[in-house]
Amino acid sequence: MVGAVGVGFAAVPFISSWKPSARAQTAGAPVEVDISKIELEPGMRMIVQWRGKPVWIFRRTPEQLAALPALDDRLRDPNSENADQTPAFAKNEARSIKPELAVIVGICTHLGCSPTYVPELQPQAFDSEWQGGFYCPCHNSRFDLAGRVFEGVPAPSNLEVPPYHFIDDNRLMVGVAPEEAA
Question: Domain Rieske spans what residues (predicted)?
Fold first, then answer.
């Protein structure tokens, strides 16, 4: 009996060592974000970390949303058919739950650079017909304000939309899709 108790005490630390560390658990954990400031300031972008990736959260203006359909003929995947980059809840023109609020992983799908946020709806040196979006200066990849990739650039696919859902009007959770939150 004493031997069995001794084996039990020895086994607990050994088995506990198999569990992921607290740091490893938080690296994949969902992130709650207060978006109340974004609600007040269109064009403002917040950056949060989720699974070691930068996630951009920003509010689009009505003008920016109106420009999205006009870009479809210039995009590689305008309907976001690549399921790896766009979850089912974001398969729409804005690639988001609420059209005015975008939640996009800020990593270029070409070589993993972080594109520059260029929200202005005006011609740029890299695109004379620019309607706002993201520009990766490393290899000239461009994405619109929904994170959809342009034709003829090195990036092979749209920017990733992470799983997320709204907790309430001022908070969202990155890392849990709407259907998982119910």
Answer: 95-173
